[in-house]
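Worked problem 6 (solution included).
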Amino acid sequence: MLTEHPLPTMADWAGDHFKTSDEATSCYCLGLALIYEKGEVLLLLPAVPRGWLNDGKHISVRGAVTYFGTLSFEVESNVSEGFIKLTLKPPTRNPPKSIIVRFRHPKELKISKERTDFDPEKIW
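Solution. The predicted structure is:
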């Protein structure tokens, strides 16, 4: 649980819901790790920890509300077989000019892809 100001001292904090705004911060930060809107660009997985993409792990986002509309996606890591798969249902109400996805290999290996729109150095 998050607490901004445990009172009267750090040792005196009690309770699992100190303040709604403190608790909401953890949800907000989780959302930003998964989806980030930057102008007309939609960034997916911009701050997802590498461990979340270990082999066999899954990430699922359903019905996320954004400026561009509602979106859903699933990520399936099969790095032992050489790939991380993203299945996306993009927003359609106000489509972004571009959608950029960040794939961070859990063992910090470079990801190679035979595409001109992929930057293996920046992992976008």
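Discussion: Residues 10-101 form one domain.
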